[in-house]
Amino acid sequence: MFFDVFRLNLYNKNLSMHMDNKIKLHDKVFRPYLSNDVIEAAIDRLAERVNADFEDSGDVPIFLCVLNGAIMFTAAMMKRLRFKAELVSIKLSSYQGTSSTGTVLIPIGLTAPVEGRRVIIFEDIVDTGNTIVALKEMLISKGAKEVRICTMLMKPEVYAKDTELDYVGMEIPNAFIVGYGLDYDELGRNLPDIYVLDESKDKNMKYYILFGPPGAGKGTQATAMVEKYNLHHISTGALLRKEIAAGTELGIKAKSLIEAGALVPDEVVEGMIESEFKSVKGVDGFLLDGFPRTIAQAEALDAILERNGEKVTSIVSIMIPDEMIIERISHRAAIEGRADDADVSIIKNRIDTYHNQTEPLIDFYKKAGTYNEVDGVGTIEEVRDRIFKLVDKF
Ligand code: AMP
């Protein structure tokens, strides 16, 4: 039961109205979250509650500062508390041990004995509660008469203990914060305000889908687009051919399907796409070539992007007539040596697969308002310039 707790909305702009400056610590950017005024006001309220409980008790409790994070909070509380007390510090490291006992505490110095004493632990933030509850138990085992927990911040979403926290300054959502004693890899403790990790991106990533029948020139045009627009090219066909060449389990399964001109299962290519999105950094967007090839894949792509607040930017559909497909692929077979290019019956199957399973995507993306077509007949440069003219708009 938490009472008299100030609940905060992480996105409450009013609270950080006067602090518009983002900061960078190590590799991460943080944006203002709780101004010093808000923190100090919460500490005022908290201190009044502790005063009410201890002021007339005649006891001389121990203030136990949990180093290093609680150093500012402890100092701020001490300035407000009006009864006699002693200050003791402790430094803890907690880690998940290999044994099933979980958190291990290594006291690096309880600077005075606690036996027979009332102890108020000052903590900067409580999340799962593992550390603070283990500390409380350790103090009791060392003979403390009473142990109360006083924390500046807590994360109710992740607190997993039954132990009641006696004094809580503010409840916050489960976000990574720094400042007012809290650090990111030892930096940020001296900031008077509290900042939250800024996960918003400065600009939205672009997601282009190169679409068109086999042999339309998607691979060739992808090279030019990637360079001009700083994109990462994802060709599911090329990724699958790599798996085949490496003789992986996935490659072995995909080989017979590819060589029959059929599609590999949706979930296989969807998994490949998602892991590329996650692992590739430093680009302005992605160019998908050969994906999606079915409505199910298109829906999966939408879902993957939506989870990250992103969406498809545009389809770039390169159109050529069927007669030209066989001619172009036969020409490519001589250059690239792809097994699925070498046999006219496989090419015909791929054209059928395209018409039956992939072509319905045109309507899908027309409905979504992201479908754009360029004429694929002409020289490589002519087609490239048509594509650039289209993509320049985004
Ligand atoms: P591509 O290099 O795009 O012509 O692809 C070569 C072959 O890989 C296709 O004929 C399919 O068998 C397989 N493949 C590539 N992308 C996909 C996909 N998105 N879904 C299913 N199969 C694919």
Model description:
The protein is α/β, with parallel strands linked by helices. 39% of the residues lie in helices and 22% in strands. It has helices at 36-54, 71-80, 130-141, 218-229, 236-246, 249-259, 266-279, 295-307, 322-336, 344-358, 360-368, 380-391, and strands at residues 6-7, 23-25, 28-34, 62-67, 86-91, 94-96, 103-105, 118-126, 146-154, 167-171, 177-178, 194-197, 206-211, 231-235, 285-289, 314-319, 371-375. The two termini are 52 Å apart. The model is unreliable at 1-19 and 95-102 (pLDDT under 50). Bound molecules: adenosine monophosphate.
Can you lay out the helices and strands and say which pair or pack?
Blueprint: E1 6-7, E2 23-25, E3 28-34, H1 36-54, E4 62-67, H2 71-80, E5 86-91, E6 94-96, E7 103-105, E8 118-126, H3 130-141, E9 146-154, E10 167-171, E11 177-178, E12 194-197, E13 206-211, H4 218-229, E14 231-235, H5 236-246, H6 249-259, H7 266-279, E15 285-289, H8 295-307, E16 314-319, H9 322-336, H10 344-358, H11 360-368, E17 371-375, H12 380-391
Helix pairs in contact: 1-2, 4-12, 5-6, 7-8, 9-10
Adenosine monophosphate (AMP) binds next to helix 5 and helix 6.
Oligomer: single chain
Quickly give the structural class: alpha/beta
The hetero molecules present are: adenosine monophosphate
Would you tell me the overall average pLDDT?
87
Give the overall silhouette: elongated
Q: Roughly what fraction of the amino acids lie in strands?
A: 15-25%
Q: What is the first-to-last residue Cα distance?
A: 52 Å
Number of discrete helical segments: 12
Pattern of helices and strands: EEEHEHEEEEHEEEEEHEHHHEHEHHHEH
Gyration radius from CA atoms, angstroms: 31 Å
Q: Point out poorly predicted stretches.
A: 1-19, 95-102
User: What share of residues is helical?
Assistant: 25-40%
Strand order within the widest sheet?
A: 1-10-9-8-4-5
Count the strands?
A: 17
Major β-sheet profile: 6 strands, parallel
